[in-house]
């Protein structure tokens, strides 16, 4: 395609938008709302997931052994645990280490009381593994697996924490996906309407083009450009707005709610937007393309 | 140049729009097609532009069998045929220059060539001075000249004119016919569908008469043609 033809097609696409100002504006507004909500939910979900991740990393599964379990048996259990994909870290705590840790917590300042146990570790059978996971939704399956291993007496875990985090994470995902899907359908529908009107307005011009010898591509391309431009504008606007708002909100929360610092760490703006910008643009342009493509197939027989 | 062999076209049950029509038009000819409404003149034009497919028979234009042209090759085929309509069919939101340049843009002509050819063809139709005017700012005759310029700018071998003087007064009608004659003198085959028998009689060209989808007369010099 010649550069002049390409530029002409772009100009015609932009002119179509201008000619149908009201409908184009409605399409851009819907697209803006759609991408804005998508961006808002995305920012919330990634931040929530980051918090969940931090919490998950703090939730451990503790594995205790049967009385008299040999060191080889315990090592073997450790090796089996290490092979699991959902396990991020596993630490072996020997009976002596467990007793030392206990003393630190319960005999602080009264070390002479613990001295009586010097040669007789009361936690002699308390050697255990502390297992940390990268995906807490797999906790139940991991616990079942460890329980089946030879030499394991008991596996302690917090099912409530695991379930709550997993369920809440899933709920946010479903709700966001549902709302975004509905908005996407509305956006496709509105873009399709805008392009349909564009085609109706230019019906005579299209007929002339065809008689003069315009190719199908030449006739269709401006309408494709129209849809894509609406998608592009409708995604750039909310992304810019979200960028500004996200920065302001995390600064505001950091200032006004500093007691949250350390408990909830917001992801830096760069981390969120390095994914959100390309996905948002792709979504906008994709919806614009889809809306105009479907309409052209239906209403423009060249 | 143009050859129709036993061509019929039926839209639905009833009298066919064209019925077993055979016609030959040589390169460089000037032909009038006359007939009442419903005689099949417009159907003939649409068949020649491959807007419609014949129900029966074959059409050959510039040694190309129209039946063999695939959908994607129709634009290329149409670039060899200029077409002019009774209602001019200009783009109202573009000026005279842009209307003519539009035909060049559609076929992907480089801008440099466009800047040379559009003024030249506007000069030929006598509208060089009005290149900035919009259709609403010029007369019907001038609008038809713009339409002719648009049809000619891609240098087609054939020019089809469907009632080109139908919306014009006598003076402008004659101006347009003189222009078409001049275009024909330069080598373009011209086929004019018209109701205007005065023009047909005066111009002394070949006249093909149609009635109810059938050719009822074909006179080499149409001066003696009677309604």
Mean pLDDT of chain B: 90
Count of DSSP-assigned helices of chain B: 7
Report, as a whole number of angstroms, the end-to-end distance of chain A: 19 Å
Strand order of the largest sheet of chain B: 6-7-8-3-9-10
Count structural domains of chain B: 2
Class by SSE composition of chain A: alpha+beta
CATH architecture designation of the largest domain in chain B: 3-Layer(aba) Sandwich
The tally of strands of chain A reads 4
Q: Can you give me a brief rundown of this structure?
A:
The complex is a heterodimer of chains A (302) and B (227). Chain A is of the alpha+beta class and 302 residues long.
What does this protein look like?
The complex is a heterodimer of chains A (302) and B (227). Chain A is α+β, with helices and mostly antiparallel strands and 302 residues long. Chain A folds into 2 domains: 190 residues, no CATH class; 98 residues, Alpha-Beta Plaits, CATH 3.30.70.3040. Chain A has 10 helices and 4 strands. In chain A, strands 2-3-1-4 form a 4-stranded antiparallel β-sheet, sandwiched between helices. In chain A, helix 1 packs across helix 9, helix 7 packs antiparallel against helix 9 and helix 9 runs antiparallel to helix 10. The radius of gyration of chain A is 31 Å and the shape is elongated. With 227 residues, chain B is of the alpha/beta class. Chain B folds into 2 domains: 151 residues, P-loop containing nucleotide triphosphate hydrolases (Rossmann fold, 3-Layer(aba) Sandwich), CATH 3.40.50.300; 67 residues, no CATH class. In chain B, 33% of the residues lie in helices and 26% in strands. Chain B has 7 helices and 10 strands. In chain B, a hairpin with a 2-residue loop joins strand 9 and strand 10. In chain B, helix 3 packs parallel to helix 5 and helix 5 packs parallel to helix 6. The interface between A and B is medium-sized, with 18 and 21 residues.
């Amino acid at each position: 395609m010649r550069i002049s033809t390409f530029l002409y097609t772009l100009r015609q696409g932009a002119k179509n938008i201008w000619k149908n100002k009201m409908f184009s504006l409605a399409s851009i507004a819907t697209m803006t709302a759609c991408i804005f909500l998508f961006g808002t939910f995305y920012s919330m979900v990634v931040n929530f997931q980051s918090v969940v991740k931090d919490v998950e990393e703090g939730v451990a599964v503790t594995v205790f052994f049967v009385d008299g379990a040999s060191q080889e048996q315990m090592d073997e259990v450790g090796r089996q645990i290490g092979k699991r994909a959902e396990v991020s870290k596993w630490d072996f705590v020997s009976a002596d280490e467990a007793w030392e840790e206990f003393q630190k917590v319960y005999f602080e300042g009264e070390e002479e009381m613990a001295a009586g146990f010097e040669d007789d570790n009361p936690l002699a059978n308390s050697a255990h593994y502390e297992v940390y996971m990268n995906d807490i939704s797999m906790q139940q399956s991991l616990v079942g697996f460890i329980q089946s291993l030879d030499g394991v007496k008991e596996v302690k875990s917090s099912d409530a924490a695991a379930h709550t985090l997993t369920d809440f994470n899933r709920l946010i995902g479903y709700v966001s996906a549902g709302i975004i899907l509905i908005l996407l359908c509305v956006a496709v529908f509105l873009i399709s309407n805008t392009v349909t009107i564009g085609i109706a307005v230019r019906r005579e011009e299209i007929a002339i083009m065809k008689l003069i010898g315009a190719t199908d591509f030449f006739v269709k391309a401006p309408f494709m450009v129209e849809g894509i431009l609406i998608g592009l504008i409708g995604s750039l606007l909310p992304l810019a707005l979200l960028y500004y708002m996200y920065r302001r909100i995390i600064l505001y929360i950091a200032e006004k709610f500093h007691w949250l610092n350390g408990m909830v760490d917001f992801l830096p703006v760069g981390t969120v937007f390095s994914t959100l910008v390309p996905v948002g643009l792709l979504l906008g342009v994709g919806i614009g393309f889809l809306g105009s493509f479907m309409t052209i197939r239906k209403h423009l027989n060249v | 140049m143009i050859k129709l062999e036993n061509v019929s076209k039926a839209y639905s049950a009833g009298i066919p729009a064209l019925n077993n029509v055979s016609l030959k038009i040589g390169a460089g000819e000037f032909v009038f097609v006359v007939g009442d409404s419903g005689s099949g003149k417009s159907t003939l034009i649409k068949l020649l532009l491959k807007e419609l497919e014949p129900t029966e028979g074959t059409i050959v234009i510039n040694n190309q069998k129209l039946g063999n042209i695939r959908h994607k090759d129709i634009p290329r085929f149409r670039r060899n045929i200029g077409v002019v309509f009774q209602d001019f069919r200009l783009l109202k939101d573009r000026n005279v220059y842009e209307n003519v340049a539009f035909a060049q843009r559609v076929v992907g002509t480089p801008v440099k060539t466009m800047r040379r050819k559009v003024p030249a063809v506007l000069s030929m139709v006598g509208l060089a001075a009005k290149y900035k005017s919009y259709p609403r700012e010029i007369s019907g005759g001038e609008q038809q000249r713009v339409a002719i310029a648009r049809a000619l700018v891609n240098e087609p071998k054939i020019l089809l004119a469907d009632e080109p003087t139908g919306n014009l007064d006598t003076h402008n009608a004659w101006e347009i016919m003189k222009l078409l004659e001049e275009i024909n003198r330069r080598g373009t085959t011209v086929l004019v569908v018209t109701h205007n028998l005065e023009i047909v009689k005066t111009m002394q060209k070949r006249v093909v008469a149609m009635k109810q989808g059938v050719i009822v007369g074909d006179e080499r010099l149409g001066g003696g043609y009677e309604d």
